[in-house]
Design a protein that fits this description.
binds flavin mononucleotide, 37% helix, globular, NADH Oxidase, alpha+beta, 8 strands, 4-stranded antiparallel sheet, 2 domains
């Protein structure tokens, strides 16, 4: 039987997961040795997430962290029952509202001791849970090495789930950057989107993206990071910019179709890839804009399918690279753990 204190400590660690606009749309219910993970859709961003994919991905990310934190804390095997299905539920999908009816995953500490290689690997990733962060800074210290690529790809459990980590070849990188830039440009004319983004910068003491984490645009316009600088004094107004890497390296979280389960696993795989990248000293950016609107998403999938072969559905695009000098960790806040336990 796991101690409640251990479970609460693991939940607290898990909340350092990535989430859309740092909404942290998760709640946890402790049921003996199990933890049910719920989506709290009352506050999720809607415009950026018309079909709930980012809400599901955020829950996938926190479940990945929770498994690692529990295994490292207890030394026991962890079993997860994912309760996200193959088809979306009836009802409002924006912000994942219709997914909030019941738990999306139940994570259980079993009474079987974890085997050493698995436990060691979980401990290694769990150790960097609080060190991982999303960067919107230049990564000009070099691309990941072949060995680093292999390690990051291997951290995404493509064999258990269906979502794998795939490195984008150079011609696909150019096409993905072009599509992302087009999506970002379109957003700049979307008043609802701009209002929503502005509302998530410095949102509250414990949610949203703090001003020091929003980064600056690429002076040469190659890398279309999401523009969070929508305030009157934002970078568009001040003209501030930074010089980004010329040949960005992109990792795709990809599968063969676009079911809610795969959207969840996209976030799960993304979190694990980010943790592995953190152990390797890589900076990690997220370029999700082209996946939010259906035409642009279809264009991304067509380009990825042609470049990688077969039917490829992209669930997330990560930018990986070494920073020229150590990045300062722009701490994004988290809700106190008591607020997220039901
Ligand atoms: C599903 C999902 C989509 C995201 N999309 C973007 C994005 O398009 N651009 C970006 O800069 N960050 C993106 N992020 C990163 C979040 O903004 C970030 O995880 C959150 O602010 C918490 O900060 P941290 O990752 O540094 O802990 C995304 C995260 C998730 C889980």
């Amino acid at each position: 039987m796991a101690e409640r204190d251990q479970l609460v400590a693991a939940i607290e660690n898990a909340t350092y997961a990535s989430s859309i606009h740092n909404a942290q749309p998760w709640r946890f219910e402790i049921l003996g040795d199990s933890i049910a993970v719920h989506l709290a859709a009352d506050e999720t961003p809607r415009t950026v997430d018309p079909i709930g994919r980012w809400a599901l991905a955020s829950i996938g990310a926190v479940v990945a962290n929770l498994e690692l934190a529990l295994e490292a804390a207890t030394g026991q095997e962890i079993e997860t029952e994912v309760r996200v299905g193959g088809v979306p539920p009836e009802g409002e999908l924006a912000g994942g509202v219709a997914y909030a009816e019941r738990p999306l995953a139940v994570v259980t500490v079993t009474d079987v001791a974890a085997e050493t290689p698995h436990l060691t690997s979980a401990e290694r990733l769990a150790e960097v849970i609080r060190e991982r962060f999303t960067t919107r800074e230049p990564l000009t210290g070099g691309a990941p090495s072949e060995v680093e690529w292999a390690e990051v790809e291997a951290a995404v459990p493509g064999s258990q789930g269906v979502v794998a980590g795939r490195r984008a070849p150079a011609e696909l990188v150019s096409e993905l950057l072009r599509l992302t830039a087009a999506a970002e440009l379109k957003r700049q004319d979307d008043a609802d989107y701009l209002e929503e983004v502005e509302a998530w910068v410095e949102r509250t003491e414990s949610t949203g993206i703090p001003a020091q984490a929003v980064g600056l645009p690429d002076a040469e316009g190659r890398i279309p990071t999401r523009d969070f600088n929508q305030t009157p004094m934002g970078s568009a107004a001040t003209g501030e910019a930074a010089f980004f890497e010329h040949e960005p390296s992109l990792l795709l979280l990809a599968s063969q179709s676009d079911s809610p389960l795969e959207q969840f696993l996209g976030g799960y795989g993304m979190q694990r890839a980010m943790l592995e990248a953190t152990t390797l000293g890589l900076g990690i950016g997220v370029l999700g804009q082209a996946l939010e609107e259906s035409d642009s998403r279809a264009a991304v999938n067509a380009a990825a399918s042609e470049a990688l072969g077969g039917d490829v559905v992209v669930h997330q695009i990560l930018r990986l690279g070494h920073p020229a000098s150590p990045l300062t960790h722009p701490r994004t806040p988290r809700r106190p753990v008591a607020e997220v336990i039901l």
